[in-house]
Amino acid sequence: MKNKKENNITAMGKRILIVASVLMVLAGLVGMLLEVHKMSQDTDLTLVKHDIVGDYDELYDEYFPRHYHATGLLTLPFDDIVEPFEAWFAGDRNMSRIDYYYGMDKTIQRGDLGKHGILFKIVPMHSEMKPSNKDFMSCWYKPVPKWLPRAGQSVIPTNLSEFKFVSEETHRGMPCFKYERKYKRYNKSNVYSFYVTKNTPHRPLRYEMVGYDDMLTSHYDHYVLDYISFEPWSFNRSLLSLPKNSSCDKKAKKLRSHYLANPMAEYMHFKHHKDYELDKTYDDYKATHGKHYTTAPEHERRKHIFKHNLSRSDDDGEGFLCRYIRSKNRENLNYKLAPNHMADMTEQEVNLHKGLLHEKKLKKSKSNTLAFNESVVHTDLIPHQLDWRDYGAVTRVHSQGLCGSCWTFSALGAVEGAHFLKTGELLELSNQQLIDCSWPAGNHGCRGGFQDRTLRWVKRNGVTSRRDYGPYLAQEGFCHCGKSDNCTFTHISGFSKVKKNNSDALKVALVTHGPIVSSMNSDQKTFRFYSHGIYDDPKCGKKTNHAVLTVGYGADDNVPYWIIKNSWGHLWGDDGYIKIAMNHDRCGLTNGPLLAIKKDSSIAEFPLKTLNKVPRQSITFYSEEELSIIPF
Ligand SMILES: *[C@@H]1O[C@H](CO)[C@@H](O)[C@H](O)[C@H]1NC(C)=O
Ligand SMILES: *[C@@H]1O[C@H](CO)[C@@H](O)[C@H](O)[C@H]1NC(C)=O
Ligand SMILES: *[C@@H]1O[C@H](CO)[C@@H](O)[C@H](O)[C@H]1NC(C)=O
Ligand SMILES: *[C@@H]1O[C@H](CO)[C@@H](O)[C@H](O)[C@H]1NC(C)=O
Ligand SMILES: *[C@@H]1O[C@H](CO)[C@@H](O)[C@H](O)[C@H]1NC(C)=O
Ligand SMILES: *[C@@H]1O[C@H](CO)[C@@H](O)[C@H](O)[C@H]1NC(C)=O
Ligand SMILES: *[C@@H]1O[C@H](CO)[C@@H](O)[C@H](O)[C@H]1NC(C)=O
Ligand SMILES: *[C@@H]1O[C@H](CO)[C@@H](O)[C@H](O)[C@H]1NC(C)=O
Ligand SMILES: *[C@@H]1O[C@H](CO)[C@@H](O)[C@H](O)[C@H]1NC(C)=O
């Protein structure tokens, strides 16, 4: 192989020499040939190294090939999510493929297609109400936005220049080098650790990110990639083609976000991505304001100022965010903000953590809805405050992850509550089953769903427990778990609308039926960074786009509020919850709530009267011992 290449170069050299001697620039060309010869002793890939404008730094090239095949596990400890992945990376060709859950979900990144590249996601869909053989693959795509590099997606960082060597260690029984990248941003410490085998050929063992909030002395983010295998890969185009029987051409639908098309990007991004976004924002800003800078240094200087002095509403430059949170907290509002795991996200990424769809026109389906007439309950019987958590009627807070599945958490929260009121048993129901199986109801997996259709679907089919169905994946999976699999189903007898814009009706619904399916507006930054207190941002509109669960109400200093369970993990807000002011129907919370009913009659019952309060479960994700080894 090597000999052949050298022969080629020599042959080529001869030809060049002939031309060169004619041109009488011999000396210069001899120097060039020596260069080429030296480089040819390395791998093929080294030859193009200096042509690439990509991200790869020297340390990367010292350790890893630019074409590789890798398998491993992505773990999100806070979200209880473990995603096995397999990746094929063809860096120099701007292509890659990453499969999750052993090929169940495939993502393909093709920089060579479309205007700036196209991202594909191929996921199972399900066409029947009941698990059967009616699974088929569906394909979604997303054109790469102009401001993103049209590159493949690596599962290891490609620019290691900010990583410092810290020690030699043994990891999984293998001697390895540990590299670290640490930085602090708005009182958050971020540590990225990267473990590479000492033995050659080097391969990555682990990449870990731990984010710690100094102000709140708590974690705000943690994820781990463990690499199981890693080897050079000789490019094979057929692996990067769309599966033949996937219907991407005909049925292609666009994905809203490139993070849905390519979830790994969320864990591999830092700096570079953000810089591209900054450049774009800055370009927009310049265009809007008609600014031109004549020299490059002036451009950079201005950009720097812009970055640190940003006041536009949709950018999260670090200076801006820090200032934003501090200034909001200084306003002496009833609620406080704190940077959380969403602080690094763009608007688009945050939108992923929603996923509520609305009917253009609500279908009237009498058979599924039940009459709920709040006026038969005397409001003077309604307690001053209620928190269904106190009665053990609410399951622990979950995180929907990078998946627009809020509608499953909201709907199932009410079904879990109804089941509890009927049986006294608190059962965690399966969000994943709704994602995988409720397509026929018109839901769209991780791309969003409808609350009323979901309750209708649950009424018709029942829903299994999380334990029976299996873990939450934050991606679409194959619909499974039928009666023959011994999965037990929980049913509801129906659901009902609660009168709009009427807080008494919502209270009655809560008191008599348990937690209520609700929707709200979640556009404001103040909502994203809410920490505690009664949330009352007048800018929070009435247009609802996020599904949540109302679990109670109360009042502090005569300011009445709703208690809302979100699905953004327990690190968000007040242990995953938020109190929202009742007055002015803040955030549109009374805009179309739904209740789930587990029994057909006695709507005006007060289950509270017969229930005892139970101690709340404390949230512990890390043991003391584990906490002590966190490197801060
Ligand atoms: C790697 O990152 C550093 C710092 O972020 C940057 O200065 C450098 O240009 C990057 N290298 C490449 C090859 O992109
Ligand atoms: C990869 O993308 C870069 C721009 O991001 C481009 O300059 C380069 O030519 C592309 N390489 C291939 C092989 O398409
Ligand atoms: C698509 O084709 C592959 C290979 O022919 C096959 O294994 C797979 O089951 C097919 N998938 C569907 C959903 O038809
Ligand atoms: C950052 O954290 C320190 C304590 O570690 C605290 O004293 C300081 O006020 C915090 N700064 C901001 C801006 O919150
Ligand atoms: C490329 O991959 C396909 C699909 O896995 C395989 O069938 C084929 O043999 C591979 N080709 C080469 C040259 O390795
Ligand atoms: C920062 O923004 C403020 C308000 O927009 C402006 O008055 C100030 O001049 C800016 N500072 C710089 C250095 O551009
Ligand atoms: C609700 O109940 C009240 C009092 O019983 C009654 O007057 C009213 O007509 C009922 N409304 C509906 C829509 O059934
Ligand atoms: C279902 O339960 C029955 C009885 O407990 C058992 O014999 C059978 O193997 C179970 N089936 C599955 C698929 O687990
Ligand atoms: C909601 O109710 C309040 C008073 O309770 C009223 O002022 C307001 O107009 C109502 N809004 C809508 C949209 O019905």
TrEMBL record:
Secretion signal span: none
Top-level taxon of origin: Eukaryota
GO BP field? proteolysis
Could you tell me which residue ranges the Cathepsin propeptide inhibitor domain spans?
282-350
Q: Which SMART domains does this chain map to?
A: Inhibitor_I29, Pept_C1
Where in the numbering of this chain does the Peptidase C1A papain C-terminal domain appear?
382-597
- The regions listed as transmembrane in this protein's record are 12-34
Q: What is the official name of this protein in its record?
A: Peptidase C1A papain C-terminal domain-containing protein
